[in-house]
């Protein structure tokens, strides 16, 4: 039998998943577009990933928890926010909302936008990191949990906040030092194809190297 064997190869693309209704995204305020017709203003939000089907979206400043015509956020160019895709008509820009949606847990209570304690809304301070949409989705799976567990084991990186947008934009806020943010960024970027064990070793090495550099800098100052 001289039949040739057929070889089938499966290729996983890091940008294969397109945005969908109710996806959570991290975006950057680009510009004020104009009135929304209901007493608020529309803003164009940059979603930051050119590989996605839509690079921008629209958000009304009335689409925040507790927002009214008289009491609504005034967004500024460059602000970073976490939102969900609430509407999407084919051929048009998706519409975002910073209010709880049907896929959010019923255990989560809505918090007024002025408290800065809601699930969605403007993200204060921190750093924006661009990754593939594929990696962003992985970070929300058990594989991602393994990364966060590894990061939290070390004092240098144990205190941080993160908002993961499946559009491939992440917002990070680590304390107490810029070095913690750098270690967190590198841990995320290096984790995509690693096992939990490899992830733990990688994070430990990054923390060790950064801690050593910080100690050397401290000694040189003293």
TrEMBL record:
GO molecular function terms listed in the Swiss-Prot or TrEMBL record: RNA binding
A single GO BP: TRAMP-dependent tRNA surveillance pathway
Keyword RNA-binding: yes
Domain K Homology positions: 126-175
SUPFAM superfamilies registered for this protein in UniProt: Eukaryotic type KH-domain (KH-domain type I) (SSF54791), Nucleic acid-binding proteins (SSF50249)
GO CC term, one of those recorded: nuclear exosome (RNase complex)
Protein name: K Homology domain-containing protein
Coiled coil region boundaries: none
Record keywords: Exosome, RNA-binding
PANTHER family: EXOSOME COMPLEX COMPONENT RRP40 (PTHR21321:SF1), PNAS-3 RELATED (PTHR21321)
Species this protein is from: Entomoneis paludosa
Localization: Nucleus
Main location: nucleus
